[in-house]
Amino acid sequence: MSEPLLTIDNLVTRFPTKRGRLTAVDGVSLTLERRESLGLVGESGSGKSVLGLSVMRLVQPPGKIESGAIRFDGHSLLDLDEEGMRQLRGRRLAMIFQDPTATLNPVFTIGEQIAEVLRWHTPEMSPAEMRERVTEMLDRVGIPNAGRRLNDYPHEFSGGMQQRVIIAAALILNPHLVIADEPTTALDVTVQAQILDLLRRLKDGEPETAIILVSHDLGVVGEMCERIAVMYAGNLVEVAPADDILDDPKHPYTVGLIASIPRLDREVGALSPIPGRLADPVSPPPGCKFNPRCAHAFDRCRVERPVLKTIAPGRQVACHLHD
Ligand SMILES: Nc1ncnc2c1ncn2[C@@H]1O[C@H](COP(=O)(O)OP(=O)(O)OP(=O)(O)O)[C@@H](O)[C@H]1O
Ligand SMILES: [Mg+2]
After folding, report:
1. Residue 245: CB within 6 Å of ligand 1?
2. Is the CB of 22 under 6 A from ligand 1?
3. pLDDT tens digits, residue range 99-129?
4. In this structure, which residue's CA is closest to atom 6 in ligand 1?
5. Residue identifier of the C-alpha nearest atom 31 of ligand 1
6. Of 6, 40, 146, 153, which is the most exposed, with the fewest CB atoms less than 10 Å away?
7. Element counts in the chain: helices (H) and strands (E)
8. pTM value > 0.90
9. Atom of ligand 1 minimally distant from the CA of 17
10. Cα 44 to Cα 35: distance, rounded to the nearest angstrom
11. How far apart are CA 115 and CA 121, in angstroms?
12. Neighbours of ion ligand 2 (CB under 5 A)
């Protein structure tokens, strides 16, 4: 078999804080095959964005990747210099951020901002070709009158349309991996559904692109992704095909997440959010970080940190209950 598109090996990313070292990503190992779609879920603060930023090598200093390795598309990302990373970003590796207003620059037109990606990576393209390519891309992401709207500024677009523009910029060079970090949370519900549908269609029509979709909504990733990785307090606690996770979750944390998915067949108010709070990333509890919130915790869970183990083909879980 050929090498996976992405191999993350024991990655640790930390931020120095006044209270001490904050471990946002705590020894994550994960592989992604070419063209695969993986959902990354977990409560707020579990380290999903920092994991994505680590792969992009965009962690804000003084935060930094302290150890581990990332192989992507034949490159060892942590050994590349900044110029090498810049060559990959946009062209092979792209990230879509949660908030479109923070990504788009208010003083440049939409057309200019998307063309910027082309100017950087394919300087041989003529301005006319670039214009054509940008128009085509805006058209693909569902922006009406793309040819004219090219000359508009971000504030002339609604939030949903801005997010479409960002998706266009991320996908214009057919990257091999797109990390979409909560691409719809800033949008209202109807527009959210449209954007997710757009991402799904773009992915299906784009045979070379793999996607990591970050979300705290297991329902959404269950529909969109082939595989799901569940993150808790910087650790991956369960990784499995989407159907397996939804039908038969193994980790008590995943069980809790699934119980909190709103469902039509359950009464409003029947949602059961997981009791307790996310482990403190500066001084996490010893043993399994989830143990203080876990109804099944036993002695070993309070002293020994479980590692992610394969329990069935394609299924991994980090939990002493499944040893
Ligand atoms: N720039 C930063 N400086 C200090 N701490 C940070 C920084 N960015 C993230 N963190 C911390 O790292 C941890 C993981 O944060 P992260 O943003 O990755 O969570 P998340 O899973 O993406 O949450 P959300 O669902 O809210 O987006 C949190 O404790 C957060 O406070
Ligand atoms: Mg986040």
Report:
1. no
2. yes
3. 778 889 999 999 999 999 899 899 999 999 9
4. 15
5. 45
6. 153
7. 11, 12
8. yes
9. 4
10. 27
11. 10
12. 49
- From CA 304, how far away is CA 307, in angstroms rounded? 9
Show me where the domains of the chain are located. 6-101+176-322
Q: Which of 144, 163, 146, 145 is nearest to 154 (CA)?
A: 163
Fold (topology level) of 6-101+176-322: Rossmann fold (3.40.50)
User: Do residues 161 and 191 lie in contact, with contact meaning Cβ atoms separated by under 8 Å?
Assistant: no
What is the token pair recorded at 10?
């024991």
The amino acid occupying position 244 is D
Q: Phi-psi region for residue 156, left (φ > 0), alpha (ψ -120 to 50) or beta?
A: alpha
Cα 168 to Cα 36, 124, 161, 192, 288: the distances in Å are 20, 20, 10, 16, 41
- 141 Cβ below 6 A of ligand 1: no
Whole-number Å distance, alpha carbon 243 to ligand 1 midpoint, is: 28
- Is residue 15 within 6 Å of ligand 1 at its C-beta? yes
Reading phi first (left if > 0) and then psi (alpha if -120 to 50, else beta), residue 253 is in alpha
* Count of all residues that appear for the chain in the document: 323
Q: Is the dihedral of CA 14, 74, 118, 149 positive or negative?
A: negative
- Predicted local confidence at residue 129, as pLDDT: 94
The CA 153 to ligand 1 mean position distance, Å, reads: 31
Report the distance separating Cα 265 and Cα 262, nearest Å: 9
User: What is the atom index within ligand 1 of the atom nearest the CA of 47?
Assistant: 18
Burial of 70 (0-12, 13-18, 19+ CB in 10 A): buried
pLDDT per position as a tens digit, 40-70: 999 999 999 999 999 999 999 999 999 999 9
Pocket test for ligand 1, best of 13, 22, 182 (most atoms within 8 A of CB): 22
Q: In what order do the strands lie in the sheet with 20-32?
A: 20-32, 6-17, 64-72, 75-76
- 15: CA distance to ligand 1 center in Å? 10
46 close to ligand 1 (CB < 6 Angstrom) = yes
